[in-house]
Amino acid sequence: MSRDDDALRWDGDEDLDLESSADDDGARPRASAPVVREARHRGPLGWIALVLALAATAGWIVIVVANPVQQPSLLGLVMYQLGELLALIAPLLWWWCVDRLAPLARRAPWWLAGLVITAPWPLVAGVLA
Q1: What's the CA gap between 104 and 98, in Å, rounded?
Q2: pTM
Q3: Phi, psi for 41 (deg, rounded to 5)
Q4: Residue 114: exposed, middle, or buried by beta-carbon count in 10 A (0-12, 13-18, 19+)?
């Protein structure tokens, strides 16, 4: 049986795995080797931004608990609760995306923008009013 015909069958796959590992002399890295990640440097500003994101999330939790909403339809209720869920996770998701995607020198403006955009404004307006 030719190698092309063998590719269409399951028989003998274990033998092929053993042959390929025997042919590999270790000169090239294996695909199953663990990937080493470089450490991300946050600094004190990153930790302050994380604390503020946690505070914003806590503020959104207070808003959601304090303001129960009744919707006339099930679809309206589901969509409203989806909006509440997104409001809850937005500050932490913003912080995580900036931490992972932005270069070190440009993180501070992005974190500041995220703080303004994802702030629990109904709570802030209620406290200031």
Answers
A1: 9
A2: 0.64
A3: -90, 120
A4: buried
Are 32 and 38 in contact, with CB atoms under 8 Å apart? no
Q: Which residues of 23-56 are buried (b: 16+ CB within 10 A; e: fewer)?
A: eeeeeeeeeeeeeeeeeeeeeeebeebbebbeeb
Centre a 10 Å sphere on the Cβ of residue 75 and count the other Cβ atoms it contains: 9
Instruction: Walk along the chain (129 residues) and give the pLDDT tens digit of each residue.
Output: 566 666 676 666 666 556 555 555 555 555 555 555 666 777 889 999 999 999 999 999 999 998 888 889 999 999 999 999 999 999 999 999 999 999 988 999 999 999 999 999 888 888 765
Written in H, E and C, the secondary structure of 101-121 is HCCHHHHHHHHHHHHHHCCCH
